[in-house]
Structures are given as C-alpha cells and as structure tokens.
TrEMBL record:
Lineage, top ranks: Bacteria, Pseudomonadati, Pseudomonadota, Gammaproteobacteria, Alteromonadales
Residues modified as N6-(pyridoxal phosphate)lysine: 189
PANTHER family: DTDP-4-AMINO-4,6-DIDEOXYGALACTOSE TRANSAMINASE, TRANSAMINASE
Primary gene name: pseC
Name of this protein: UDP-4-amino-4, 6-dideoxy-N-acetyl-beta-L-altrosamine transaminase
EC number: 2.6.1.92
Family that this chain belongs to: Belongs to the DegT/DnrJ/EryC1 family.
Length: 381
C-alpha cells in the first residue's frame, strides 16, 4: 500500500535520538530549548514553545488568549477536528465559516458577512482559528485587517504549513499577523517528532502564558512570582495548567528533521508539479497552483465520477488514498451540539468529491507513476 503521507527518517536523525538516550536528560534538558531556538530561527517567529502535540498547542493557544466558558470561537469545517475541539476544551462554543471552493480555505467574504451579523447580535467570537489547508497559506494580511476591526483574536492552525513561505519572510505561519501560530510534528506533517507540536508568537506576554499553561501553570522564575510567602521556594503555580511538555528524546528528532525541512518541501513541490502536469487532462479539479505552499496534501476533486466508488477502486489498487476532511460539523459529536448537514454547503460539496493522493518526500518516481496510472484507469472505467 502506498500511503497518502509518511515520515522520512535518516541515519543522522536516528543518531540524534540515540545520543540523547545515551547521555543527557530525557526531559527538561537542553534539547527542547535548542529545538525551540531552531524553530524560531527557521520560522522567524520571536518565541516558540514546543509541546507534545499540535492539539496541545491549540489548547494552550486558546487558554493564553483567555478563551473560557461562554466565549465563542470560529474556524472552518474543512479541517481536522482539533481546530475546533481546542475551543470546546475551554468551555467555549464553536461556530464555522464556510470555505471558498477555489482555495478550500476560509472564505474571506463569508467571514466578513458573518462578522457583521455577529456584531449586530452581540455574538462576536473571541478567537478565529484559520487553517492553512494542505500547506497553502491563507491571505493572512487580509484576514488580520478584517478581524482586527472587530476585536477578534487570531490563531493560525499551521499544522500543514511549516515550510510554506509568506511575504518572503516567514516559513511556518505568519506570527506578524496572528496572535499565535500552531504547528504539528505528527509523522504525516512537514517534519516529525513522532508526536509533538509548537506554538509560535511574536508577543512576549503570550509566550509567557503559553509556557505557563504547557507546564502545570508553574513558573520557576522568581521574578515572576506573585506571592511573597513562597519567594524562597523554587516554583509557584499561578494558573491551572497541564503537562504538555515535549521530551528531549522527541526534541532531538525535531532538531535533526528541521535541518532537512527545506529539502522535504522542495521534494513535495516537485511531486505536486508532476501531478499537475500528468493529471491536467483528466475530468478532475486540481489544487490551485501555489509556488509558496508547503504541499502537505495534494487533493483532487472529481468533477463527474462517484467519489466513494473511485476511492474504493484506488484502495483496491494499493493506493492509501485518504479524504481531507469530513466537515467538522458532520461528526456525531458536533451534530449532537446542534449542527446539521447543509449548513456549510461549500465545505460539504468539496468533501463529497475530494480524494487525497499520496504525497510525501520519499515517494519515488515509480510509485508516483503507479498512482497516476491507477487514477487514469479508475477514471476511465
Ligand atoms: C495534524 C493536525 C492537527 C493536530 O496535530 P496533532 O499533532 O496530531 O495533535 C491540528 N490541526 C490540523 C489541521 C492538523 O492537520
């Protein structure tokens, strides 16, 4: 089976991990700060807080922005459930903004309209979570200018976008326009730490809060202690935080992987260009051309074939095709909260025709040709 995504581990990556296991601390050592520094250097964000998953990073991002019971958080239906769940962890209500079918990302016109209506009914969200779907950057400048007028804070779910460039200045989200940018290092993403994630920000106070929430709400910096009575102690718990720390074993893998990230993205872009060329005559909609994408996913939309039948036929030919994404509001958990099918028609129509083709740095030319041939055969039948 050719999977839709896969990690790429080198001998040097393995050596980096083994070095930590042989010497040094397994957690709370110097590898996590070194990984955070490397992430800052690469992405051009002022602060990076590494954590044990992208989902944890989304959770602490919401907490740092003060999301709580009674608040509202918006995202798009065309994403992984974690983009919405983070708000639910904080007791907030979730709502969605439909996608633009051309970009498959949040539709800025719909966003504008929904903000105006929400303002009138005093139902503005505290935070909007935008998703750089498939590794293509959203128009962050336009989105930030719009939501700033309404006092809405901005989280970028950049789980797909590490390595995508924006304004020629940023290479994993755009912390200049968002409050917090979230990354994931799950094995199918741009780089991996097995499980892992990070929150990036250019705001010092937010960086402090992110760190606090990721480690029990505890600070060890006596200059930040709020209580006199424990001034002699080593640490002080100030808020209710979690243990979301990344280990040094995982960070060591991240440090080695990050060195190869530009090569990974180049490889993904070359594979995407080959799909563009080889599939352009088929009755399918290809992803939009984007020279700055991190190319996390290559999603085609069938124009007049039965998606489920094609999906099964491709699976039967040994392709690990996938579907990104079941609209979040279609999941039973969200249906039970009151969402119904038909509410976000662009996300739903897109989903019903979408198939994700294999795309990862180690995909060989032969295997890609096999994918292309298999797709041609299935669409011909
Ligand atoms: C992978 C992913 C996440 C969650 O990341 P984990 O590291 O798996 O917790 C969040 N949002 C999106 C869009 C993702 O693809």
């Amino acid at each position: 089976m050719i999977p839709y995504g896969a990690h790429d581990i080198s001998e040097l990556d393995i050596e980096g991990v083994v070095d930590v296991l042989k010497s040094g601390l397994l957690t709370q050592g110097d590898k996590v700060p070194a990984f955070e520094q490397a992430l800052q250097n690469y992405t051009n964000a002022s602060y990076a807080v590494a954590v044990n998953s992208g989902t944890s990073a989304l959770h602490i991002a919401c907490l740092a922005l003060g999301v709580e019971n009674g608040d509202i958080v918006w995202t798009t239906p065309n994403t992984f459930v974690a983009s919405a769940n983070c708000a639910r962890y904080c007791g907030a209500d979730v709502d969605f903004v439909d996608i633009d079918p051309a970009t498959r990302q949040i539709c800025i016109e719909s966003l504008k309209h929904k903000l105006l209506v929400a303002k009138e009914f005093n139902k503005l969200p505290k935070v909007l979570v935008v998703v750089h779907f498939a590794g293509h950057m959203c128009n962050m400048k336009a989105i930030a200018e719009l939501v700033n007028q309404f006092g809405v804070k901005l989280i970028e779910d950049a789980a797909h976008a590490l390595g995508a460039s924006y304004l020629g200045q940023y290479k994993g989200g755009c912390p200049a326009y968002s409050d917090i940018t979230v990354l994931s290092f799950h094995p199918v993403k741009s780089i991996t730490t097995a499980e892992g994630g990070a929150a990036l920000t250019n705001n010092k106070a937010l960086a402090h809060l992110l760190r606090l929430f990721a480690s029990h709400g505890i600070t060890k910096d006596s200059q930040n202690f709020v209580s006199n009575s424990v001034a002699a102690a080593h640490y002080e718990q100030q808020v209710l935080g979690f243990n979301y720390r990344l280990s040094d074993v995982h960070a060591a893998l991240g440090i080695m992987q990050l060195k190869r990230l530009d090569k990974f993205v180049e490889k993904r872009a070359a594979l995407a260009a080959r799909y563009d060329e080889e599939l352009k005559d088929l009755p399918i909609t290809l992803p939009q051309f984007d020279p700055f994408s991190a190319w996390h996913l290559y999603v085609i939309e069938l124009n007049h074939h039965d998606r489920d039948a094609c999906f099964e036929a491709l699976r039967a030919k040994g392709l690990g095709v996938n579907i990104h994404y079941i609209p979040v509001h279609w999941h039973p958990y969200y249906q039970q909260l009151g969402f119904t099918k038909g509410q976000f028609p662009h996300s739903e129509r897109y989903y019903l025709n979408a198939i994700t083709l294999p795309l990862f740095p180690a995909l060989t030319a032969d295997n890609q040709q096999y994918v292309i041939n298999a797709l041609r055969e299935v669409l011909r039948d």
